[in-house]
Write a structure and sequence with these properties.
21 helices; 11 strands; 4 domains; 3-stranded antiparallel beta sheet; 41% helix; alpha+beta
Length: 611
């Protein structure tokens, strides 16, 4: 709210002493002046001489107590804008490129005011006398002197006659506000631009080792082997996390010991440990996240390290002091960028011979602080951990089962009755089309004899289908003098090769009683279809089987019959294409971690070959 009494008196005073200068304008409200400035005609080239160069705004104040509140507004123009037709001229050389036919001589001043967007701080860019001269020679101080003389002479008092001239004259002296003397560590100031990249390079090798170790256990199936034998995923990843954190803590301790008397001689060792420890935690979480994208350790150690290093380069854009804190926080979702920003702040405090301590941890320079870096890196570590957990559950891998993308919401969807709808919409994208094609092929090629006919001798053999109508020739591999040789064997007449009726062993009532009490392994229509470059391959076609407690069940079949694939689906190493199984009432598709607590396996030659 404006003080209209004082404003009117001052306007009258200026009109009197300037001979009613037509360039003076009076506005009843600040909004009225702002509307004029923001109007469409204000930026018209022909209105260049009518632009407002200076304004004095008298704010509401208790003038009866001789207290006055006013502000000076100045139309600041950058030097490179001086030649534009839409701005007033304001540069130190008093030379302006004014469009022809327009008289803008009255708008020129002798000095450019300091921009309020110029960045200064007490660490890297202290205030200089340029600010003093800017305010002194631009006309700012002259306006302030004139207003103060008017007010001190009583020109704003109610009931007093208008002044014809100021009764009190002021002398002006200009100087900088007293500040602490500025000193700097020249060595740190010179290398401060290189420190972030040096620190980043130091973490590349440890990061490549982190992710290589994680992916190597996936590649050699050690991870799935341990999970299959009952180890929980949380225990597996916690063991790795503790191992890597232990190594990281040791590395951070060595960094503090080697730099406390050299690079970070002014900073608190605890602050340096906190900073590098936060980045170590975020790097470990990032290695878990990137490990979900790779299945080969050598590839992961190269590509993931390159991605980690590439996440540093946004720092060169984010380090600009022109960027806001919010923009820098957004770029800090990449923890290497946040680390580099914090390293720059550490270097600034060291070059100022102050250092990073508890007192300066939260102090902001260039819209950033070391505390921002520590906080964002810890946040990034938590975010990467959650993403790693989610992607580890849903991304398809060579071994292990995957969960639907909406699995975190299954409970909520179940309560809302939408779970079935989402499942139907999502479907099994990877297997649905393959199943449809494979079913047609299986119906055309299979007669049931492959599973129900008597088993051939337990040797590698292939039936010759090009027979003469009387005999079936079998190409059988046998061992002769420690060498594998082919031998043609007459097996059976074609007429006699018709499969005999399926003979099923009767199940006793005592075993059948286990079914209601969930003491069995029940397999229903279990299927697995593998996609190939040609037609889809049916490995297991609708297997139905019940295994009873106290019984030994053995799967027999020739090579390629689907024995290993069946066991793989039951142990969670292979994702079924259809059907399902239950162990003691627990669904092997949804409760595999609980099911695996009741399973055992045998590892052979570092591979999961036997179960």
């Amino acid at each position: 709210m404006l003080n209209l009494i004082v404003a009117q008196k001052y306007f009258n005073f200026l009109s009197l002493i300037t001979g009613k200068n037509p360039n003076l304008k009076y506005y009843n409200t600040s909004w009225e002046m702002d509307s004029y400035i923001m109007g469409d005609d204000y930026d018209h080239p022909e209105n260049s001489a009518q632009k407002i160069a200076y304004a004095v705004v008298f704010n509401d104040s208790p003038i009866h107590l001789d207290q006055y509140d006013y502000s000076i507004r100045v139309n600041f123009t950058l030097p490179w804008e001086a030649g534009l037709p839409t701005v007033s001229c304001s540069n130190p050389n008093n030379t302006c490129g004014v469009p022809s036919g327009i008289d803008a001589s009255d708008t020129a001043v002798n000095f450019v005011l300091p921009s309020t967007s110029t960045f200064t701080d007490e660490i890297t860019n202290p205030k200089t006398s340029g600010y003093m001269f800017g305010y002194a020679y631009s006309g700012f101080v002259a306006i302030q002197k004139g207003v103060d003389e008017f007010l001190l002479s009583g020109g704003g008092e109610q009931g007093r006659e208008a002044l014809s001239e100021p009764l009190i004259l002021l002398e002006v002296s200009v100087g900088l506000m007293p500040t602490v003397s500025f000193s700097t560590d020249n060595f740190t100031a010179v290398i401060s631009g290189f420190l972030p990249i040096f620190y980043m390079l130091a973490f590349l090798y440890p990061f490549s080792r982190y992710i290589r170790s994680l992916v190597l256990e996936k590649e050699t199936k050690i991870k799935e082997g341990m999970l299959m034998m009952g180890l929980s995923s949380s225990a597996y990843y916690l063991s790795w996390w503790l191992t890597l954190v232990g190594q990281g803590v040791l590395s951070c301790g060595l960094i503090v010991l080697t730099t406390r008397s050299t690079v970070f001689s002014y900073s608190s060792p605890w602050m340096i440990f906190l900073f590098f420890g936060s980045f170590t935690l975020s790097a470990i979480s990032l290695s878990f996240l990137l490990s979900t994208l790779f299945s080969r350790a050598k590839t992961a150690s190269i590509l993931a390290t390159l991605l980690f290093f590439a996440a540093y380069f946004p720092f060169y854009a984010a380090s600009s002091p022109a960027l806001s804190t919010a923009t820098k926080l957004l770029s800090s979702l990449l923890s290497p960028t946040s680390f580099a920003l914090g390293a720059g702040s550490l270097a600034d405090w060291e070059s100022a011979q102050i250092g990073t301590t508890w007192d300066t941890l939260f102090d902001v320079t260039n819209n950033w602080s070391v505390a921002y870096s520590v906080g964002t890196m810890l946040f990034d570590g938590a975010l990467y951990g959650v993403l790693a957990w989610y992607l580890n559950e849903v991304l398809p891998t060579e071994h292990g089962t995957r969960r639907p993308w909406f699995f975190p919401l299954e409970g909520l969807l179940g309560l809302l009755g939408l779970l079935g709808v989402v499942k139907t919409t999502a479907g099994d994208e990877d297997d649905g089309a393959a199943d449809a094609d494979a079913d047609a092929d299986a119906d055309a090629d299979r007669t049931g004899t492959e599973l129900e006919s008597p088993l051939l001798p337990a040797r590698d053999q292939n039936v010759d289908q090009n027979v003469d109508g009387q005999k079936v020739m079998v190409d059988q591999k046998v061992m002769v003098d420690d060498q594998m040789v082919d031998q043609k064997v007459d097996m059976v007449d074609v007429e006699a090769a018709t499969p005999p009726p399926v003979i099923t062993e009767p199940v006793s009532s005592s075993l059948l009683s286990q079914i209601p009490s969930n003491r069995t392994v029940t397999i229903k229509n279990l299927r697995k279809v593998f996609r190939t470059t040609g037609a889809p391959r049916v490995a297991v076609a609708g297997l139905d089987l019940t295994m009873f407690e106290g019984q030994i069940t053995v799967l027999l079949g020739h090579n390629g019959a689907g024995k290993s694939t069946t066991i793989g689906m039951l142990t969670g190493l292979v994702t079924p294409s259809g059907g399902g199984a239950r162990l003691r009432g627990k669904d092997m598709g949804k409760d595999m971690e609980r099911v695996r607590g009741s399973l055992g396996g045998e590892l052979s030659s570092h591979r999961i070959n036997h179960y």
